[in-house]
Amino acid sequence: MRGRKITLNTLKEKIQQLSSELPDSIIKELERELTKVLDKLTASSLEKITSEVVRQYREAMVEPGEAVGTVGAQSIGEPGTQMTLRTFHFAGIRELNITLGLPRLIEILDAKRVPSTPLMRIELDEKTRYDKAKAEELARKIQHITLENVAHSISIDFGQQLVLLRLDEELMKDKRVTLEMVLNALNKHKVGAVEEIVEREETPEGTKKKIIELAIPLPEAVEITKLVKLRQKILNIKLKGIKGLKRVVVKEVVRGGETFYYLEVEGSNLQGILNNLDELEGIDPTKVMTNNINEIASVLGIEAARNAIINEMTNVLREQGLDVDVRHIMLVADLMTMTGKVRQIGRHGVSGEKASVLARAAFEVTTKHLLEASVRGEEDPLTGVIENVVIGQLIPLGSGMVELRVRHGGR
User: From CA 5, how far away is CA 18, in angstroms rounded?
Assistant: First the structure.
């Protein structure tokens, strides 16, 4: 009976019996692989295979008493000593700076509110990704353009009580900005009505430049100290694009003989992109990524932030040629996000919010923690590793978590 071949229904019934032992992903994969060799499968070989899969899965799980936190910290910390301390950046005028190595790993673990080099990667849908012209058009729509980006100069004429804003026509053409857009923006921000528009040609260093000069009257009785703020306010006026996205580069990828394009952005504004999908037709909203983990948490939720921490840490370590098991990284990500918000690994986050008074005191600012705990009358349950080391007890891990009791009297 055990040597006879089995049917597909028998195979499915046998595998479904393992649902209490194995996760759905392994059950589906097991069924798929065994179906391929169904004609060679017997009842005895099926029994051996399923028993071996269950055995290996159980061995892969964490054993009771395993010091997962210490092992995880060591497994990430030791390779971290081999990471570079410098900030790497791509060379060339069309590329973007990016923080890698140890500085980036520290940013992630410290849950820094804004990364030192915020970046976005925006992929395009199937219709648009192969069209370079459409990708470049999207890049122009996304890029945040202010008056400063198209201004030749700005000065204040105290004699005529005017702000003279000179626009570079060549820059305006490159950024797809019209004079009408500039005038509308000035009116919207109530800077003042433009009294005169003069077009002239200047020849600095032998090159001709067409300059459009706008004369804006100064507010009455304006203080000298406020003129600098007024000048900066004019330069910061938005003309087009999405706030915070300073520079957009169209990147080309050749894969499988096909060339497709995506956008890399200096700056980050995930909510801004997702709010303007109607205007930005061609963007795949499921593949808009940012390296700002706090922004991901506020826009997409804590689970998305957890995945972002895992992906960012994995990418940083892989880029440095370091191989760290993803389960250690997942443990850190779980610890940082388990309360529903992104916390740093430090005294203002995970380490500073431990339940144990002695564990908190052993990390940093010892006196402060002990004093506050004594004022509040806190008790320490002594369930962790650090607090038991402090008082000289066995730690509750490995053999230390087992209590042996003996009954006297022969009964």
Answer: 20
Which of 148-157, 230-239, 356-365, 400-409: highest mean pLDDT?
Answer: 356-365
Final residue of a structural domain among 187, 215, 240? 240
* CATH number for position 373: 1.10.150.390
Q: What angle do CA 137, 140, 143 make, to 5 degrees?
A: 150
The answer to whether residue 2 sits within a structural domain is no
Structure token pair of residue 339: 């309360």
Task: Please answer whether residues 349 and 343 qualify as being in contact, where contact means their C-beta atoms are separated by less than 8 angstroms.
Answer: yes
pLDDT at 108: 92
Would you state the pLDDT for residue 332?
Answer: 94
Question: Is the dihedral angle over the CA atoms 103, 108, 109, 112 positive or is it negative?
Answer: positive
Residue 336 lies in a domain: no
Range of the domain at 20: 8-60
117 in a domain, yes or no? no
Chain centroid to CA 390: how far? 37
The count of structural domains within the chain is 3
Give the domain CATH number at 175. Answer: 3.30.1360.140
pLDDT for 294: 94
25 located within any domain: yes
In order, the DSSP letters of 87-125 are: PPB--STTS-B---HHHHHHHHHTT-SS-SS-EEEEEE-
Per-residue pLDDT of 187-219, as tens digits, reads 777 666 665 566 666 655 556 677 777 777 777
pTM across the whole model? 0.76
Residue with tokens 């804006």: 216
Tell me which of 240, 273, 291 is where a domain ends: 240
Tokens for 382?
């002594």
Q: DSSP of 354-400, one letter per residue?
A: -S-HHHHHHHS-HHHHHHHHHHHT------SHHHHHHHTPPPSSGGG
